[in-house]
Design goal:
mainly beta
Length: about 280
């Protein structure tokens, strides 16, 4: 604390308290006119009785300019750990893609909260191994998944995030579900050509499934002259299927392009089909 002498003449002062847990340095002094004096107050928690967590006292300053009394208070640091939730539902990982979440840690007590964070599953990870949180503040812990370590045969698994701190210990239950779905890549346009033996124009439609479940596809030509080797196709995960397209009939004179509709559970594409050119 600081004493100011804003009067005239030197100011003699003496500070005292009956609290054994606080030390004043210096306890007496003379402050010249227009200057200031500083008193350092140091509290010693070891001077408190066993089991005592806080104490109050009075600081009195006697001087040539009057007497001032100030309250003193000491509280032992006692951080307290709290979190915004004790169950974290990470939702659904589609085709084993990484999933993220977060939790917020609060310090509801006194002093600095320090802690470490661990998980009991290899697929469950937190962005930090330790944290520090000031009194009255909070920190956010980001959660993410390492899907390379998630059991392949599981559609759901649970884990525990454990927070150990100087303000308590908490365990947070977590849950992650997985869903394997088909994912058909957008087909490329089909280029049809006429063979040297005079066969009708034909081409190949390539269906590629980049998902992790079987894709069921329906094919619908835009015009009746365009035929397909099969109208319904199943494409296994990570596989390609080639479907033959043929043109039956006279080629149209005004355009060399038609299309085929590709329907899947996720979407529908209109895939251009280019017919041979160079005809009259």
């Amino acid at each position: 604390m600081t004493l100011f002498n804003d009067g005239t003449g030197a100011l003699a002062w003496h500070a005292q308290t009956d609290a054994e847990w606080v030390e004043l340095a210096p306890a007496t002094g003379i402050c010249p006119e227009g200057e200031q004096a500083r008193i350092a107050l140091t509290a010693y928690a070891l001077a408190l009785e066993a089991g005592q967590e806080e104490a109050t006292a009075t600081l009195a300053i006697n001087s040539d300019g009057g007497r001032v009394k100030l309250p003193l208070r000491l509280a032992l640091a006692a951080p307290r750990l709290e979190v915004d939730r004790t169950f974290v539902d990470l939702g659904v990982s589609v085709n084993r893609q990484p999933v993220e979440g977060s939790i917020r840690v609060f310090n509801r007590g006194l002093g600095l909260l320090r802690g470490v964070v661990t998980s009991d599953k290899l697929w469950l990870a937190v962005d930090r191994a330790s944290f520090a949180c000031e009194m009255g503040h909070s920190v956010e812990l980001d959660i993410h998944t390492d899907m390379d370590e998630f059991p392949e045969l599981f559609s759901e698994d649970r884990g525990v995030i454990r927070i150990e701190s100087n303000g308590g210990v908490l365990e947070l239950d977590t849950r992650l579900q997985t869903e394997l779905v088909p994912e058909l890549a957008e087909p490329e346009p089909v280029i049809m050509s006429t063979g040297e033996d005079g066969h009708p124009p034909q081409g190949r439609l390539v269906l590629r499934n980049v998902g992790m479940a079987t894709a069921r596809v329906e094919l619908e030509p835009a015009v009746p002259e365009l035929t397909v080797s099969r109208e319904q196709v199943e494409v296994k995960p990570g596989k390609n299927v080639r479907v033959t397209l043929r043109w039956q009939g006279i080629l149209p004179p005004l355009t060399n392009e038609t299309a085929i509709q590709v329907h899947s559970a996720e979407t529908t594409w209109r895939v251009p089909v280019h017919l041979p050119s160079g005809r009259p």
